[in-house]
Amino acid sequence: MSQSRQIKRLADYQAPAFLTHSIELEFVLDPAATQVTAISKISRQGAHQLPLMLDGHGFELLGIWLNNVPLTDYQQTDEQLVLSQLPDEFELKIVTQLNPAENTALEGLYLSGGAYCTQCEAEGFRRITYYQDRPDVLAVFTTHIIADGKSYPHLLSNGNLIADTLLANGQRRVSWFDPFPKPCYLFALVAGDFDELTDSYTTGSGREVALKFYVDKGNQQRAVFALESLKRAMLWDEQEFGLEYDLDIYMVVAVDFFNMGAMENKGLNVFNSKYVLANPQTATDVDYFNIESIIGHEYFHNWTGNRVTCRDWFQLSLKEGLTVFRDQQFSAAMGSPTLCRIDAIKTIRTAQFAEDAGPMAHPIRPEQVLEMNNFYTVTVYDKGAEVIRMQHTLLGQAGFRRGMDLYFQRFDGKAVTCDDFVQAMQDANERDFSQFRRWYQQAGTPQLRVTSAQDDALASFTLTLQQHTDATADGSPKLPLVLPVRLELISLDLSYRQQHLLVLTEERQSFVFEQVPANVRAVVLADFSAPVKLLQQISLDDLLFIAANASDGVARWDAMQQIWSDLVRQSVVAAHPVLIPASLLAMFRQLLDQPLDDLEFTAELLALPGFDTLAEQYPQIPVDSILDTLQSFRQQIASQLTAELTRCYQRLPRQPYQYQSMQVGIRKLQSLCLGYLAQAISATVISQKNAAADSDVITQLLQQHYLQADNMTDRQATLTAAVQAGLDLAQPLLLDLLEKDGHDPLIFDKWASLQVSLPTEKVFELIENIVNYPQFSWNNPNRVRAVFSAFSHYNPQQFHRADGRGYQLLASIVGKIDHSNPQLAARLVTPLLSWKRYDEARQLLIQQQLGQLRDQPGLSNDLFEKVARSLS
Ligand code: B3K
Ligand code: ZN
């Protein structure tokens, strides 16, 4: 199918010429020929004679009726239906026929396993019927689903159930009514045979809400944690923001074929099964964390996204940035604020900084788009959340809440803009946020340069902050931004400690602090209070001081990160890995012998930054130097601290698995120790002393850790350590995992991702083998991502091979997947887009692959937009 390559621009926004007030849908389900009847009540807006433009494609049009009279006078293009000379108010009936079984793009109505399900955001509803598929058209939906009740006992849609009848032909007809007007991207339908897990929740005002989770047969107990998370999220939103749920029922369906994590359809969330199903045998601690956070995220959308929605898709961050911020606050309240923040910072420093520095750079409110699905990005989501967080920081908790209250008071039931949000924050607090709004218009990562001067005679301390943002691929302006900078001043004897919130608004500003004792150390950008790259010259001793003494845990962790990134930089300059300084090893020794009470935090302090984080510090990424240096650092730590790592590992008690913070800390610290220890085996060349004996002990530790584990987290820890160190024991243990549990799709995915992280050339053979397993399917995004995203993101050694084999593999898969699932292909291609950041030889290799993709016949808009921007 040929697609028009029409770019849409924010500047061209026009209010809809017609509004659809209500729509009644009837689905007669059939795998290859589902019939959809849509009856809409529509009215003209204002005095004009414009035609009604309805979006739609990928189905057969069976008929149109205007006020019950067949309509034949219309124009049909590839993607639109144009109706002219309409009355001011009318009823339109449209009948279409679709083929869910052949819908491998997983947008619109499709089959996942044996179940029907829908995905309409951003523009999937137009694959179901002709409609005004734009978020500022809000209608009341009634949905009737007709299907064989035996094969599809659960027939679900948005809102409340209003009827369930048996038809004369033996089929069932189930009807749902959603009283809240909504854009069509929030429409959902699910039909299937599931296990059901039910519960209820009573809201603060005493309304009882039925909670229902639908999962594949046999998986009911694996949804318990998600259900409990939902109840925690409902309570938290009431306590934190005074927001209650509004329908009688809240449903979550877990499906195996899904393009992303989950979808917040009103009253009927559809989830990737990966983010619902959990038990200790199948899910890791990280999975549990993600489930709670995504369940929260989708629930929070009920207010930030559904009750108040976006005027147009350029405003996506209005709902996504805000909802990510809300889910981060929720996770922080359920666990450790510091660890949640570290998690969020890693996402920004890797993927988001990379996006800002690459061809797809865009502001959190993009200004032009070819394929909207390409803009569900870390910029819109995660940088968007940072922009909300800065407003929270500037206004304080109470001020932010005042702004939120005003936002809902003004805009409940409306489709609005990011500007409307900022205006509410501003008005509720009588602040001027006009300069702050630049965050919505400018792409790019600001660099924040810090210098300081101390005047002992005057007892003053001066901190100078300077901001600069490099040009980005989208050409957006680069004016000075409002940067909230959290600062702590600490004297070396710890007797003086002061915290400040500085607000940098100019390009360069100095802040003077009086009555400051001599020799204070400055902790700048505590809590990562603005999404910037911090440039500061600071000695190893001072960084170690901050890592030990800053009040803010995030700043302590960050000081460790800076130590490592400084050492990597020195190694890159020296063209060989430097030796780890003794003072740093001493600190490791101390933390391993006497871990802090918070073991998970201890593990973060002892972890090296990843390849991606380090890479973002260089305009041109010295791939080989970074990889060699990281490998050398791991091995130096392993060989010099073998005894301490072993002791630390052995002292930590193991208990029957519970997802509980003390235990999560134990598992994480043990996993960190095993990761280094596994490297000690391959590093025996460095430390000759007792090398063979050490190797045996470590091999045994690793084996026991796997064999005695009663949970997936520990098993995965051994396997990761062994695969990454290239140890022989990895393969038999991986085989064990596959044979015992590989029938479960989520475990198969874990097994596959572990295999493809093997940092040697053998990985290519493994990949060929994995895709031939019966569990693998090219049509299932989870399976494809488990192999190919894992390979390109977690195996930098092989992905960035100098002979280009890694690039070639990824490009060939992207080209193949584009025919069946363009959204998935466009996500997978991301690591190839930033080819300009690599050395000349790698640039040529990647460019060649991208060139071939660009010339592929029938290339989707999704892939075209990214590849073309990358090559331009
Ligand atoms: N709103 C959905 C994402 C839809 C992605 C469409 N390509 C999930 C979320 O952010 O909650
Ligand atoms: Zn979201």
Automatic annotation (TrEMBL):
<dbReference type="Pfam" id="PF01433">
    <property type="entry name" value="Peptidase_M1"/>
</dbReference>
<keyword id="KW-0862">Zinc</keyword>
<protein>
    <recommendedName>
        <fullName>Aminopeptidase N</fullName>
        <ecNumber>3.4.11.2</ecNumber>
    </recommendedName>
</protein>
<dbReference type="InterPro" id="IPR014782">
    <property type="entry name" value="Peptidase_M1_dom"/>
</dbReference>
<keyword id="KW-0479">Metal-binding</keyword>
<dbReference type="Pfam" id="PF11940">
    <property type="entry name" value="DUF3458"/>
</dbReference>
<keyword id="KW-0482">Metalloprotease</keyword>
<keyword id="KW-0031">Aminopeptidase</keyword>
<feature type="domain" description="Peptidase M1 alanyl aminopeptidase C-terminal">
    <location>
        <begin position="541"/>
        <end position="871"/>
    </location>
</feature>
<dbReference type="InterPro" id="IPR012779">
    <property type="entry name" value="Peptidase_M1_pepN"/>
</dbReference>
<feature type="domain" description="Peptidase M1 membrane alanine aminopeptidase">
    <location>
        <begin position="225"/>
        <end position="439"/>
    </location>
</feature>
<dbReference type="InterPro" id="IPR038438">
    <property type="entry name" value="PepN_Ig-like_sf"/>
</dbReference>
<dbReference type="GO" id="GO:0008270">
    <property type="term" value="F:zinc ion binding"/>
</dbReference>
<dbReference type="GO" id="GO:0016285">
    <property type="term" value="F:alanyl aminopeptidase activity"/>
</dbReference>
<keyword id="KW-0378">Hydrolase</keyword>
<dbReference type="InterPro" id="IPR024601">
    <property type="entry name" value="Peptidase_M1_pepN_C"/>
</dbReference>
<comment type="function">
    <text>Aminopeptidase N is involved in the degradation of intracellular peptides generated by protein breakdown during normal growth as well as in response to nutrient starvation.</text>
</comment>
<feature type="domain" description="Aminopeptidase N-like N-terminal">
    <location>
        <begin position="86"/>
        <end position="186"/>
    </location>
</feature>
<feature type="domain" description="Peptidase M1 alanyl aminopeptidase Ig-like fold">
    <location>
        <begin position="444"/>
        <end position="535"/>
    </location>
</feature>
<dbReference type="InterPro" id="IPR001930">
    <property type="entry name" value="Peptidase_M1"/>
</dbReference>
<dbReference type="GO" id="GO:0008237">
    <property type="term" value="F:metallopeptidase activity"/>
</dbReference>
<comment type="similarity">
    <text>Belongs to the peptidase M1 family.</text>
</comment>
<keyword id="KW-0645">Protease</keyword>
<dbReference type="InterPro" id="IPR035414">
    <property type="entry name" value="Peptidase_M1_pepN_Ig-like"/>
</dbReference>
<dbReference type="GO" id="GO:0006508">
    <property type="term" value="P:proteolysis"/>
</dbReference>
<dbReference type="InterPro" id="IPR037144">
    <property type="entry name" value="Peptidase_M1_pepN_C_sf"/>
</dbReference>
<dbReference type="InterPro" id="IPR027268">
    <property type="entry name" value="Peptidase_M4/M1_CTD_sf"/>
</dbReference>
<dbReference type="Pfam" id="PF17900">
    <property type="entry name" value="Peptidase_M1_N"/>
</dbReference>
<dbReference type="InterPro" id="IPR042097">
    <property type="entry name" value="Aminopeptidase_N-like_N_sf"/>
</dbReference>
<dbReference type="InterPro" id="IPR045357">
    <property type="entry name" value="Aminopeptidase_N-like_N"/>
</dbReference>
<dbReference type="Pfam" id="PF17432">
    <property type="entry name" value="DUF3458_C"/>
</dbReference>
